[in-house]
Structure formats: structure tokens, C-alpha cells
Amino acid sequence: MCPEFSYSKDWDEDEEYLLAKIAMAEAEGESIQCKTLVIMTVLNRVQDEQFPDSIEDVIFQKTGDTYQFSCIGNGRWDRVKPSDDCYEAVEVVKQNQYDYSGNCLYFESCEEEDNWHSRNLTLLYQCGDLRFYQ
Fold first, then answer.
1. Mean pLDDT calculated for residue range 4-32
2. pTM for this entry
3. What are the distances in angstroms from CA 35 to CA 15, 66, 115, 119?
4. DSSP H helix total and E strand total for the chain
């Protein structure tokens, strides 16, 4: 059985927009399930002591000159608007009692198999063209 969510889902309108937008920027063209996993990754980071304590701070976190989410650094974030599927994914996460993400903290597109993620993290699963890690 999946663990129950350990984080609050009492998000305001701005936070819901940020979650929908990160789902669009990182998982456009993917299923609602993949979008929910992207959202859960952000929320898992908010709860993890290695990462910032808010949705906005997690999404815009930088390490040196590099953003944690590539869509922020490459300008995609500024070009996309959340689709209805993205808002549906936010609602799925909000209504779901259990965290079926496996407590994932990272994800990547599956363009390269040998990269920092694959060498330094534990692969949990693949959903569409995204790999999720812990």
C-alpha cells in the first residue's frame, strides 16, 4: 500500500497555478499520470529537508548557476501556459489520499541513458518519456 500524503494540500490559487505550470513545462504531451508524478515530485521536495520549504522556492531553486528544473533555465517556463490536463493533474493530487510516487525527488526526460541522474540516484520507474528517481 502507498503511504498517505505527509504534506498539506491546502494550496492557494498561486500555488495551484505553479504546480499546473511545472506540470506543463516538464510534461507537456504526457499523460495526466505523468503530470501528477511531476507535481508529487515538487511536493515531496517541499517536505524533504534537502530542499526549500515552499512550492515556489522548490520550483525556482538554483544550485550555483543551474536551476533544479531545466524548464526554468532554458526559458520554456516563460513560454507555456498550463492546459486543462495540468489543472486536472493538480486536482488528482489534491483529491488523492496516497502518495503513489514512491517518494520521488527527481525526474528527467529519457533522452540520454547515461547521465548524472542515472549515475547518482536510484531509478524508481519510467512514465511516458520521463524517468523518476530517489
1. 91
2. 0.92
3. 15, 23, 22, 24
4. 7, 5
